[in-house]
């Protein structure tokens, strides 16, 4: 099946390249032998309830949330998953790259991030068991278990892609699913994937 993970505006990091303190905008539908880095940890002090963490610690660096992608992938015509995916980047890397290579390079970075994120989302959905869980105590528990499984599968699949991207671009990033946003299809996924995407312009403020 084909994953849908697209940006309405051009560029994941262009806005941040222009100003590293700019508001974070939400966009709607995101073989090298590289050892994946240790898993990044969201800054729990900057996360509240249904709001994503604005920063994330990775390898001793504090990454900032720069963009939110919405994605949908189908495992088959019936089953699939959709949700939001958080893109974090290291501001000092962005400023350095902007000085050395200019702003235009971030459009290329945007395309690369979008492409491998869609592939990773498809891999994660394919690896997640979306069948009904007969042992779940209720719908909430089943939803929580599915969200956890998909998040683990996404992080496992995205780690080598991020490591390769960082190695080739010198830009430290991370991409994580926003688990409260995840929704799962047990029927009608292919129909949802075929529907046109309605624009959204919501803004997440630091």
TrEMBL record:
Residues 28-53 are annotated as: Disordered. Residues 43-53 have a biased composition (Polar residues). It comes from Methylovulum psychrotolerans. Keywords: Signal. This is Uncharacterized protein. Residues 1-17 form the signal peptide. It comes from the Bacteria.
């Amino acid at each position: 099946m084909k994953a849908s993970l697209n940006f309405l505006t051009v560029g994941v990091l262009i806005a941040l390249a222009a100003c590293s303190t700019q508001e974070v905008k939400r966009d709607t539908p995101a073989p090298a032998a590289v050892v994946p880095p240790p898993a990044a940890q969201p800054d729990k002090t900057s996360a509240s309830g249904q709001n994503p963490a604005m920063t994330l610690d990775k390898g001793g660096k504090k990454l900032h949330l720069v963009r939110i992608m919405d994605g949908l992938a189908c495992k088959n015509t019936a089953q699939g998953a959709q949700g939001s995916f958080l893109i974090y980047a290291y501001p000092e890397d962005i400023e350095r790259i902007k000085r050395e290579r200019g702003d235009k390079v971030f459009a290329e970075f945007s395309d690369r991030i979008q492409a491998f994120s869609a592939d990773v989302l498809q891999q994660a959905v394919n690896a997640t068991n979306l069948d009904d869980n007969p042992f779940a105590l209720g719908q909430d528990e089943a939803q929580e278990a599915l969200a956890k499984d998909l998040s683990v599968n996404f992080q496992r699949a995205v780690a080598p892609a991020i490591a390769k991207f960082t190695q080739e671009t010198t830009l430290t990033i991370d991409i994580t699913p926003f688990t409260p946003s995840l929704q799962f299809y047990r029927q009608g996924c292919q129909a949802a994937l075929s529907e046109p995407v309605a624009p959204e312009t919501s803004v997440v403020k630091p």
